[in-house]
Amino acid sequence: SIAPSSSATSKRREASMAINRLVQQGKVKVYADTMFNAANDAGGADEVVAVRNQMAELRHLIYSDMDLSLALKDASYTPEQRYGLAKAVFADCEMALAETLAVMAEQGDTDLLGQVFHGYEDAMMAALKLVVVDVTTVVALDDELRELINKKAEAELGCKAVLNESIDESILGGIIMSVNGMRIDASVLSQLNRARYVLKGTD
User: Fold this and answer.
1) d(C-alpha 181, C-alpha 133), whole Å
2) In terms of pTM, does the model score above 0.85?
3) pLDDT tens digit string along 19-58?
4) Mean local confidence (pLDDT), 90-97
5) Antiparallel, parallel or unpaired: β 175-179 and 160-167
6) ∠ CA(82), CA(57), CA(87), 5° rounding?
7) Which DSSP symbol is given to 3?
8) What whole-number distance in Å separates Cα of residue 198 and Cα of residue 127?
9) 75: pLDDT confidence band, cut at 50, 70 and 90?
10) Which of 50, 108, 114, 156 is such that its CA lies 20 to 30 A from the CA of 66?
11) What residues pair up with 134 in beta bridges, in sequence order?
12) Per-residue pLDDT averaged across 93-100, rounded?
């Protein structure tokens, strides 16, 4: 028999990788869309945002907890055991998120969570024209500053924006904002100079 050429082997490998990427993209879309639809049906935009914010927190939890991360995809567990583990660990989460995570664990797909998160945000934008802006400060925002940031974000993004606020004393001062995985440079938003001045007193 004639051994396949290195060129033919390389082409088959590339084709296999392309198919795998398509399969993964298909899974990501199914998980993201299913979770979005379940959340939207359960409670509209408020529930959609609640699920998104919980998922953002869980991404960091799962990736930072190596034991949990490995257990959720451990091939020595049966799919049913992984499903049950995820259901137990995420029992306090919103139902749409808990159920999707359990199915992802069952299928050994929890490594796709980051992609699913971005796919979920894409679904929010497509269906609701809605984005979540993560805002991190040293001290809690007051109502005036909250409204200012919200209006500026909506003007920049051209859609409805909801703030997801968190406090992190380690940043010492100022304000950090991000949306859809990208940071928004506060200097672009000229009126946020007041925020920097107010928060500077906490340095």
Assistant:
1) 10
2) no
3) 777 778 889 999 999 999 999 999 999 999 999 999 999 9
4) 96
5) unpaired
6) 25
7) P
8) 37
9) very high
10) 50
11) 164, 178
12) 96
Copy the structure tokens of residue 65.
């907890």
* Residue where the block lists tokens 């390389």: 10
Q: How many whole angstroms separate alpha carbon 136 and alpha carbon 183?
A: 11
Helix (H, G, I), strand (E, B) or coil at 27: helix
Per-residue model confidence (pLDDT) at position 16? 66
pLDDT at residue 189, rounded to an integer: 40
Half-sphere exposure of 7 toward its Cβ, with a 13 Å CA cutoff? 0
CA–CA separation, 128 and 148 (whole Å): 22
Residues 6+ apart with CB under 8 A from 140: 165, 167
- Is the C-alpha dihedral spanning 15, 16, 19, 24 positive or negative? negative
Q: Which amino acid is residue 152, in one-letter code?
A: K
**Mean pLDDT, rounded, of the chain:** 86
Alpha-carbon distances of 128 from 33, 64, 111, rounded to whole Å: 13, 31, 27
